[in-house]
Design goal:
There is one protein chain. The longest helix is centred in the first third of the chain and has 15 residues. The protein starts with a helix and ends with a strand. It has two domains: about 70 residues, Chemotaxis Receptor Methyltransferase Cher, domain 1 (Orthogonal Bundle); about 180 residues, 3-Layer(aba) Sandwich (Rossmann fold), CATH 3.40.50.150. The chain is about 40% helix and about 20% strand. It contains eleven helices and ten strands. A seven-stranded mixed β-sheet has the order 6-2-1-7-8-10-9. The protein is α/β, with parallel strands linked by helices and about 290 residues long. The radius of gyration is 20 Å and the shape is globular. The N terminus is likely disordered.
Length: about 290
């Protein structure tokens, strides 16, 4: 299958931007302004140790907008009534490192200890902070591999993120060979379609997997629109970017959105040890209601 060159370029994973060798200095005043704005909008905590990273990522926006100073950018941000630039700022400030079957022990635990007991006709999963889609698609592959007669059951995965840019990548579901390093040849053949242009090879997730995933933008610190409860929530390597109070609030809300007996998966670098909660510890970074 051939793709138009423009489609390929839009779907290739984000490339590293070359930062101009500019001497622009991000003042403490401007750093605090950006930090406060980002925290208010999506809960991400940008402490003093992140100043160099914030400067590096802000330079991307300055280049994209043709601006010459951080002051000019902040003035523009404050007067952008459309809200488009704050979304672009959040996109550039969020970290979206992920890969297929990341932290594989979680998928093994799901396969061996959870799915065999989930006999109800409908199942609901939520990947909160889904980034570019590798996690929900990995989950969908596991479900198709493990659940018999899956097509006659009502099984859905909700994939959400605060970044519209990442959600568009999920919708397109194209991945470079480098992004598929943890996919076995068998699974690659079963669940991906190879697509090529003159100079680029990508793999698109097949429709049977994509159909299991519902995509939506959700800011975790804002009200959540979902009505039903989930059997499993994945929120892995997300809470490390929030301060303690935001983490506490999130854990309380996850509890409310889980079925009794449901499971919460966090990242292996995350823990509930310093947070007040009612979850039962099951295995590293896995908790049950």
């Amino acid at each position: 299958m051939l793709l138009e060159k423009r489609t390929i370029q839009n779907c290739v994973s984000e490339q590293k931007n070359t930062v101009d060798s500019t001497s622009l200095d991000l003042s403490q005043k401007h750093f605090l302004k950006i930090s406060k704005t980002v925290h208010q909008m999506c809960g991400i905590s940008l402490h003093e140790g992140k100043k160099a990273l914030v400067r590096f990522r802000l330079l991307k926006r300055l280049r994209a907008l043709g601006m010459e100073s951080f002051k000019e950018y902040i003035d523009f941000l404050e007067h952008d009534s459309s809200g488009k630039e704050i979304r672009s700022l959040i996109d550039v400030m969020t970290t979206n490192k992920t890969n297929f079957f990341r932290e594989i022990t979680h998928f093994n635990y799901l396969r061996e200890n959870i799915l065999p007991d989930l006999k109800v006709p409908h199942l609901r999963f939520w990947c909160a902070g889904c980034s570019s889609g590798e996690e929900p698609f990995s989950l969908a592959i596991v479900l198709r591999e493990e659940i018999e007669n899956i097509d006659i059951r009502d099984i859905k995965i909700l994939a959400t993120d605060v970044s519209l840019k990442m959600l568009e990548m999920v919708r397109q579901a194209y991945y470079s060979p480098e992004m598929l390093g943890d996919i076995t040849p068998l699974l690659l053949q079963k669940y991906f379609i190879r697509v090529r242009s003159e100079s680029t090879t990508l793999y698109q997730v097949k429709d049977e997997i994509r159909a299991m995933v519902r995509i939506g933008r959700i800011n975790l610190i804002e009200p959540w629109p979902m009505k039903g409860l989930f059997h499993v929530i994945f929120c892995r390597n997300v809470m490390i970017y929030f301060d303690r109070q935001t983490q506490q609030e999130l854990i309380n809300r996850f509890w409310e959105f889980l079925q009794t007996g449901g499971y919460l998966f966090l990242g292996h670098s995350e823990s509930l040890s310093a947070i007040s909660h009612n979850f039962k510890y099951m295995t590293p970074a896995v908790y049950r209601k």
